[in-house]
Design a protein that fits this description.
Order of helices and strands: EHEHHEHEHEEH
Distance between the termini: 42 Å
Number of strands: 6
Strand content: 5-15%
Helix content: 25-40%
Largest sheet: 6 strands, parallel
Structural class: alpha/beta
Radius of gyration: 19 Å
């Protein structure tokens, strides 16, 4: 496979960075081709703005998604976006590697999503979910967090982790057509022992070595809806 790792952590010596390095080593060891976008090292600009276009289709009023569509077609989109978009289109698997910030992704990663998942290429019109522009690609979310696993779930103090990840797993990755694999989670990372961290690394390596056996999460398919996107009624049992 061609694998793109989008890494968002400000500390090169972090455990999140160790997960990135292990992924590179493991996947290359399986003869996959691997590219890494280290957003902090790249000093990635996370701000979507009019500066992302050398010329605008509508110079008087910025509709960012529409300018993305026209900018890609006309070659007027910013060079940093085009470089990342080329990596994304090259990849068969994209790994998003980050620490959980405020029940969400770091701003640096959110800005990559905002700017690189370009309208007209990755989605647009009814090109979403299984019909999205990135259909056929897989996505794996690899995240670290400070909480213990018992703090997450039905009735737990923070609620289900899946609820926190829904905007990313469903509203972003599944929306643009990717097959979303179950996330890999390293719990309580800032507070655990060296040995516990090694256990997580071993588990992650085993997960990466067995990706072909992973079953993707289920999300809507357009065939389940009518032309106006109302759910089709299920036949009576």
């Amino acid at each position: 496979m061609n694998v793109l790792i989008v890494h968002a952590h400000p500390e090169p010596q972090s455990f999140t960075s160790a997960l990135r390095d292990l992924a590179v080593e493991t996947l290359q060891g399986q003869e996959h081709q691997v590219l890494v976008s280290d957003l902090y090292a790249m000093k990635w600009n996370p701000v979507a703005s009019a500066e992302d276009f050398s010329e605008r289709a509508n110079p008087d009023y910025l509709v960012y998604a529409l300018e993305q569509r026209e900018g890609v077609k006309a070659g007027r989109i910013a060079a940093d976006i085009q470089t990342e978009l080329d990596k994304l289109l090259w990849a068969d698997l994209v790994i998003f590697n980050f620490p959980l910030y405020w029940f969400s992704v770091p701003a640096m990663l959110k800005g990559w999503i905002d700017r690189v998942l370009v309208s007209g290429v990755c989605y647009g019109g009814k090109r979403f979910y299984d019909q999205g522009g990135l259909a056929g690609k897989k996505a794996l979310v690899t995240l670290t967090l400070g909480g213990r696993d018992h703090m997450f779930g039905e009735g737990a103090i923070h609620g289900p982790l899946e609820d926190m990840l829904r905007p990313l797993l469903r509203g972003t990755l599944a929306y643009v057509g990717m097959e979303v694999l179950p996330p890999f989670v390293a719990w309580h990372v800032p507070y655990i022992s060296y040995e516990a961290r090694q256990d997580f690394l071993r588990s992650y390596q085993a997960r990466l070595q067995g990706l072909e056996q992973d079953v993707a999460l289920e999300f809507p398919r357009l065939e389940q809806f009518d032309e106006r996107l109302y759910p089709l009624q299920r036949p009576a049992q």
